[in-house]
Amino acid sequence: MTTRGGGGAAAAPPLSAQPPPNGYHHRQYYPTTPARSSSSASFKGCCCCLFLLFSFLALLLLAIVLVIILAVKPKKPQFDLQQVAVQYMGITPTTDPTNAVTTTAASLSLTIRLLFTAVNPNKVGIEYGESRFTVMYRGIPLGKASVPGFYQDSHSEKKIAATISVDRVNLLQADAADLIRDASLNDRVDLRVLGDVAAKIRVMNFDSPRVQVSVDCAIVISPRKQSLTDKQCGFDGLSV
């Protein structure tokens, strides 16, 4: 017997509300975009902007340096040994007690004053570092002198003095015999002055890479006259 209530049969539940077969329930997932993807893209964009900025600044700095170099046209400084003054020179031979003719050694005492001339032909100043010079006899170092660093204005010439003192330097038999023979027979002692001069060109409070000039001078001294008889100087060139 059919019962009517409320005007008809009950409506069937929707498909979504119906239980799945075999008693399993399925959940529906919606894909979501991770939040880190947006931050990663922002970081990459920031790095790219910084790289472009630094590249632009480097190119701009390089262009400024090139413009300054083309405008200044830097030239190498001139550093020359202008004068050598012999203040004292003495040679003391040492003979063999058993043979008064044979010279076994000799000591050399020497005091010379070197006067250098530095010429700056550039439109800007030059900053010189400390320079060191060595006087040698037949490849044997006898003494050294140093010149403190200084600044030289553009288009200027400067005199720098240095004194080398040699106090009783002993020479071996062969070198002593040559020294005594040259001094007594030829009235000459051949010496060599070597040194390195380091300089930097200064433009708008910026220093260029260091430029080094090697000085090589051959001098001849007369022991009898206590004076310089010959001088020849050269430069080995420039090295950075």
Beta-strand portion reads: over 45%
Q: What is the alpha-carbon Rg in Å? A: 44 Å
**Percent helix:** 10-25%
Assembly type of the chains comes to: single chain
| Elements, N to C (H/E) | HEEEEEEEHEEEE
The total count of strands amounts to 11
Average pLDDT works out at 77
Q: What gap, in angstroms, lies between the N and C termini?
A: 117 Å
| Biggest sheet descriptor | 8 strands, antiparallel
- Overall spatial form: elongated
Number of helical regions: 2
Low-confidence spans = 1-7
Category by helix and strand content:
alpha+beta
Protein model, in words:
The chain is α+β, with helices and mostly antiparallel strands. It has helices at 36-72, 173-184; strands spanning 78-96, 99-120, 125-128, 131-137, 140-147, 150-152, 156-171, 189-203, 206-207, 211-222, 227-239. Strands 3, 4, 5, 6, 8, 9, 10 and 11 form an 8-stranded antiparallel sheet that branches. A 3-stranded antiparallel sheet has the order 1-2-7. The longest helix is centred in the N-terminal third of the chain and has 37 residues, at 36-72. The termini are far apart.
What keywords describe this structure?
240 residues; alpha+beta; 2 helices; three-stranded antiparallel β-sheet; eight-stranded antiparallel β-sheet; 11 strands
